[in-house]
Each structure stands twice: as C-alpha cells, then as structure tokens.
C-alpha cells in the first residue's frame, strides 16, 4: 500500500523541491566560475547531492493526493455542497448539514 501525502505536505515538498532546484542551479553555475579547486570540488559534491535530493523529492511528489483532492472538491462544488467562492452560500449549506445532523440524533 502506498501512503498518501496530504495537500499541505505536498505544498511543503514543492517548496523544498524549488529550493533544492535553486541550490542545484547555483552550484552548477558557481562551480564553472570558481578558480579554487577545493571550492570547485565542494560545489561539485553539492551538485551531486542536490541532484539526488531533487530526484527523491520528485518521487515523493508522485505519492501526493492533490489530484484526488481536486476531484472531490470539483464534485462537491458541482453538487452544491461546497461553495469555495461564495461564503454566504457555503454558510447556508453548512447550516443545512448541521440541521440534518441534529435531526438525525
């Protein structure tokens, strides 16, 4: 069974992936510009590590359930259960659900 990653975790992963891509770009660029061999070696090692980290983060992104969340949200909006852009309408729906739940108890 593949564990799913929550939407907020997916956003954090995306931020990390963006950061690691920036690190990778900087390391590659700087390693070509520096003349100090020791510094170049450090940057090249960082390049290898950043590539590996980027691949690992990309793999984790594949386990995200953002697509499922989007499908459910679209279904709920289409059926009128979720009004993302109209708070007054959403309040009415929420109150109807609350009333139904109270009547069932």
UniProtKB/TrEMBL annotation:
Name of this protein: Uncharacterized protein
Biological source species: Clostridium beijerinckii (Clostridium MP)
InterPro entries hit by this protein: Spore_coat_CotF-like
Superkingdom assignment: Bacteria
């Amino acid at each position: 069974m593949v564990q799913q990653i929550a939407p907020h975790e997916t956003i954090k992963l995306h931020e990390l992936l963006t950061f690691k891509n920036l690190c990778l770009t900087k390391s590659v660029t700087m390693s070509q510009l520096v003349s100090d061999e020791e510094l170049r070696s450090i940057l090249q090692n960082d390049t290898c590590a950043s590539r590996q980290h980027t691949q690992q983060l990309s793999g984790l992104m594949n386990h995200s359930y953002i697509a499922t969340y989007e499908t459910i949200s679209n279904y709920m909006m289409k059926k009128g259960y979720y009004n993302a852009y109209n708070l007054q309408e959403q309040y009415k729906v929420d109150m109807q659900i609350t009333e139904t739940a109270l009547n069932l108890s």
